[in-house]
Write a structure and sequence with these properties.
By secondary structure, this protein is an alpha/beta fold. The protein contains 2 helices and 8 strands, in the order βαββββαβββ.
């Protein structure tokens, strides 16, 4: 056990097409930009850091598997904002994986994908 680890505070999405991914996330989310460079883009997202990084290291792999996402990133909103978010996603042509659904675990959710197939969620506690 890594007892020194106290929290998770940084999420990075590895990207093949950096410009496409930057445009998607900049256009969709209101987060202020923390840093922007040729191989990365960072956002101020509150308690955690959120970034995009171009696959440049030999161990980064290539491409994602749209048929088998390995990670899901969830963004919290208020319950009355879920439908509005869904409508915006649809209007922007974002690939919806599951429309607005009230889950048995007490969340109202939308599941969708970014341009490289990463699974994203908008959710609210209900």
């Amino acid at each position: 056990m890594l007892k020194a680890v106290k929290q998770l505070n940084y999420t990075i999405i590895l990207c093949d097409d950096m410009e496409l991914m930057k445009a998607f996330y900049r256009d969709l989310f209101p987060f202020p930009i923390r840093g922007d460079g040729e191989t990365g883009l960072g956002f101020e997202t509150g308690a955690t850091q959120f970034s995009l990084r171009k696959r440049t290291r030999h161990y980064d792999g290539q491409g994602t598997r749209n048929d088998l996402p390995g990670v899901q990133i969830a963004f919290l909103v208020e319950p009355d904002e879920v439908q509005e978010c869904y409508d915006i996603l649809v209007a922007k042509g974002v690939r919806i994986m599951e429309a607005v659904t009230d889950q048995p675990r007490g969340h109202r959710t939308i599941y969708f994908a970014d341009p490289e197939g990463n699974q994203l969620e908008i959710y609210a506690e209900i």
